[in-house]
Amino acid sequence: MSAIRRIAAAGGVGLGFGAISLIAASPAQAVSINLPDLTSGEGPASAIVLLLSLTVLAVAPAILLMTTSFTKIIVVLSITRNALGLQGVPPNQVLTGLAIFLSFFVMSPVLGVMNTDALQPYLDGSLDFGQAFDLARVPLEQFMLANTRPEELALMVNISNEAPPATPADVSLTTLVPAFILSELRAAFIIGFVIFLPFLIIDMVVSSGLMSVGMIMLPPVLVSLPFKLLLFVLVDGWALIVSSLVNSYT
After folding, report:
1. Which of 121, 93, 104 lies closest to 69, judged by CA?
2. How many CA atoms lie within 13 A of 3 on its CB side?
3. What does the DSSP 8-state code read for residue 37?
4. Are 227 and 84 in contact (CB under 8 A)?
5. I want to staple 132 with a disulfide (CB 3.0 to 4.6 A). Which of 16, 122, 138, 155 is the partner?
6. Which tens digits make up the pLDDT trace of 31-62?
7. Separation between Cα atoms, residue 100 and residue 59, nearest integer Å
8. pTM of the predicted model, to two decimals?
9. 69 to each of 72, 90, 137, 140, 152, how far by Cα in Å?
């Protein structure tokens, strides 16, 4: 402590519980650094609240994407690109952007109800955050319930060891979200199989034709790619896929 006092006397350093003041030899060069008073108990609580808020903000986009139609749309678009044999075309940014805007298109009725019933009253001050959250989750839960298979819902209820709900509407949100995701992945893989099948047939026909003429060294994918692209363009493949995805939601 004597060393600290000597340093404080020589350099003009003042220590306090609520603040730390660094004062140079000249008063014009005074620097003050204010820190929260750790003895009051308010500093750590505020830090924890800030940390929790940042965590929620970081996780919120992922939660919103997993509770909408984004999962199925992006999976189907990725399978379509792989079925065509195009590894980098369209780029991931294009597929992700298309999936996001298609998700907005599908979810627009739900988002409209959430905005009218929850967001605008909350911004007007007529509802607090808890009431607005309870009202906003209702249309989202109805959308997820309408597009969730009963098998996946029953599976998640059994895994959670919860009491069987009286109605599907009584299922908790933590149980409904994974059941909805499983249903979306199952539907996406079914659509992907239907898309993959004709391109697989083209690959098999081209491969058999190359083997019959003795062109073993020529990659069949190189020859079948123009035929797959031609077929996809002739049937207007992107429009068919987008219309099928949009019409698959109730």
Report:
1. 104
2. 0
3. -
4. no
5. 122
6. 444 444 444 444 445 676 677 667 767 777 78
7. 17
8. 0.72
9. 6, 20, 16, 11, 17
